[in-house]
Amino acid sequence: MKLQTEKGVITISSDVFTNITGAAATNCYGVKGMAIRSTTDGLVHLLRRESMAKGVKVIYNDDATISLELHIIVDNGVNLMAVSRSIMSEVRYNVSRATGVEVKSVDVFVDSMVIG
Questions:
Q1: pLDDT tens digits, residue range 27-40?
Q2: 10 lies in which domain range?
Q3: Pairwise CA distance, residues 75 & 72, whole Å
Q4: Residue 68's beta-bridge partner residues?
Q5: What is the C-alpha to C-alpha distance for residues 87 and 35, in angstroms, rounded to an integer?
Q6: CA distance 54 to 19
Q7: CB neighbour list of residue 26: distance below 8 Å, 6 or more residues apart
Q8: 73-to-8, 49, 79, 112 alpha-carbon distances in Å
Q9: For residue 76, what pLDDT is reported?
Q10: Within a 10 A sphere around the Cβ of 8, how many other Cβ atoms?
Q11: How many CB atoms lie within 10 A of CB 52?
C-alpha cells in the first residue's frame, strides 16, 4: 500500500500489516494463537510465534483502507463473542496507530478450540 505525504511516498508491505495484526490478536485474552488449515491433510494447525502472520489475510480496498481476516485458535470455555469483539477492537486500534491506514473491517474466524 502506498501513502502520499507532503514529504513523499511511503510504501507499506503486507508483512507489516500481518505482523501487527497477529501480535495484537494473540495478546487478547482467550486466544491460544493464530491458525492455518493445512492443504495436505485439511487439519487446523497452531502457528508458532514467528510464523503467526500466515493466519492473517490483508485485503486492499479501493478507498485506501484495508480489510483483515484472522484465523485463530481459542481456549476452551471462553465467550467467543467477547473474545472476537476484543480482537476486532485491538487489531483496528493497533494497525491504525502504527501505520496510519484506516482499517475498514476485521473478520475473525475461530478455527479451533484447545482444551487444557
A1: 999 999 899 888 78
A2: 2-114
A3: 10
A4: 58, 106
A5: 14
A6: 9
A7: 33, 34, 49, 52
A8: 40, 13, 13, 5
A9: 93
A10: 7
A11: 23
pTM, full prediction: 0.86
Q: What are phi and psi of 84, to 5 degrees?
A: -65, -45
The domain tally of the chain equals 1
Q: Which among 3, 59, 49 has a CA at the least distance from the CA of 26?
A: 49
| Residues 6+ away with beta carbon under 8 Å from 48 | none
Q: Which portions of the chain are predicted below pLDDT 70?
A: 116
Q: What percent of the chain has pLDDT over 90?
A: 71
Cell numbers given for 92: 483496528
Angle at 111 between CA 64 and CA 69, to 5 degrees: 0
Q: Which of 55, 51, 41, 58 is nearest to 1 (CA)?
A: 58
Q: Over the stretch 62-74, which tens digit does the pLDDT of each residue have?
A: 998 999 999 999 9
Q: Which three cell numbers stand for residue 40?
A: 495436505
pLDDT at residue 87, rounded to an integer: 96
